[in-house]
């Protein structure tokens, strides 16, 4: 349900649905990841970071989650944490060109 709501850009309702899913299954890594994505889309970077960290506790080798966590830190202005998670993202998926672009952008600042 949450994913369908995100497609419709109804992020507030999606967040509600992801939280309900997590209440029912606190080990549902994809629900935490998707919750992070929905929070990110409404620029609630702090809650996105919390959700991504929870997802990573359940799946620490998720390149996508490290990438999104890095992006949230980057948008929040915490470039050191952003760089750390971009590097971890590359560790698990060295073929994502967007990761290299984001790292280069940080290094240029």
Task: Summarize this structure as a short list of keywords or feature phrases.
single chain, mainly alpha, Serine Threonine Protein Phosphatase 5, Tetratricopeptide repeat, 0% strand
In short:
This protein has 7 helices and no strands.
Protein described:
- It is built from seven helices and no strands.
- The protein is mostly helical.
- It folds into two domains: 1-55, Alpha Horseshoe (Serine Threonine Protein Phosphatase 5, Tetratricopeptide repeat), CATH 1.25.40.10; 60-109, Alpha Horseshoe (Serine Threonine Protein Phosphatase 5, Tetratricopeptide repeat).
- The mean pLDDT is 94.
Q: Could you name the CATH topology of the largest domain?
A: Serine Threonine Protein Phosphatase 5, Tetratricopeptide repeat
- Number of individual domains: 2
In terms of quaternary structure, the protein is: single chain
- The helical percent reads over 70%
Approximate shape:
globular
Tell me the Rg in angstroms: 14 Å
Low-pLDDT stretches are none
User: Which architecture of the largest domain per CATH?
Assistant: Alpha Horseshoe
End-to-end C-alpha gap? 40 Å
Protein structure class: mainly alpha
Report the strand count: 0
The CATH superfamily of the largest domain is known as Tetratricopeptide repeat domain
What is the CATH class name of the largest domain?
Answer: Mainly Alpha
- The percent range for strand residues is under 5%
Provide mean pLDDT, rounded.
Answer: 94
Summarize the biggest pleated sheet.
Answer: none
Give the H and E element order. Answer: HHHHHHH
The number of helical segments is: 7
